[in-house]
Design a protein that fits this description.
The chain has 8 helices and 11 strands. The chain is α/β, with parallel strands linked by helices. About 4% of the residues have low confidence. Keywords: DNA-binding, Phosphoprotein, Transcription, Transcription regulation, Two-component regulatory system.
């Protein structure tokens, strides 16, 4: 079955354009022109990924993301005319997986959708590993690749789709240094300065969730000029 994408955007022309491109690429599309309707759709219907505008009537995109993250970790891509770094950081901090600024090329949006869905649904997809091999353990962390769940000392930790993808890739190869581009792997293979800033926010959020002291990380280490690696230090 095709993936279902929700477009929550109060601009009818943008919704129609994105719907056309997404459907031409095989996606099923649901639409909402305000935050309240978008929230209702997310609660009542199956949605694989959400494209959310920030400035919407009824409920803004930031509030909608916060509500969604209480019950779901599906990929969320923000679409916004706000292009300041502080706006992007806020969106990522509250749970968005990606942030695209308007005006945008609809083909770029499709590429980001493809990449986000592939990261979320294809890590550990297919038949899946044997139960004993489906868990990665490092220090106090245990990552279940089959159920896509993280625990620290047995306590569940909520991750966004992108945070899960990054952590899984690193925990599969502890000690290996990954560049930011390798960790933020995109469907179109393109990596920009904007992606670089996005990646740093995701790493920062991961540290806040898994480190006892994010300023002195025991797990995710920065290798200056190269990227990041994960290891465990007592």
């Amino acid at each position: 079955m095709p993936y279902t994408v929700l477009i929550a955007e109060d601009d009818g022309d943008i919704r129609a354009l994105l719907k056309l491109y997404l459907e031409n690429n095989g996606y099923q599309v649901l639409q909402a022109d305000n935050g309240l309707d978008a929230g209702r759709i997310l609660k009542e219907q199956h949605v694989d990924l959400a494209l959310l505008d920030i400035m919407m009537p009824g409920m803004d995109g930031y509030h909608l993301i916060r509500e969604l993250r209480r019950t779901s970790n599906i990929p969320v891509i923000v679409l916004s005319a706000r292009d300041q770094d502080c706006d992007k950081i806020l969106g990522l901090n509250i749970g968005a997986d990606d942030y695209l600024t308007k005006p945008f090329n609809p083909l770029e949006v499709v590429a980001h959708v493809q990449s986000a869905l592939r990261r979320f649904y294809h890590l550990g997809a297919g038949k899946g590993p044997e139960p004993a091999a489906s868990k990665l353990t490092l220090g106090e962390l245990s990552l279940d690749l089959y159920e896509m769940k993280l625990e620290k000392n047995g306590v569940p930790i909520e991750l966004t789709a992108t945070e899960y993808k990054i952590l899984a890739k690193m925990m599969k190869q502890p000690g290996r240094v990954f560049t930011k581009a390798q960790l933020y792997e995109r469907e179109d293979g393109y990596y920009s300065e904007s992606d670089d800033k996005t990646m740093m926010v995701h790493i920062s959020k991961l540290r806040e969730k898994i480190e006892s002291n994010p300023k002195e990380p025991r797990y995710i280490k920065t290798i200056r000029g190269l990227g990041y690696k994960i290891e465990y230090r007592e």
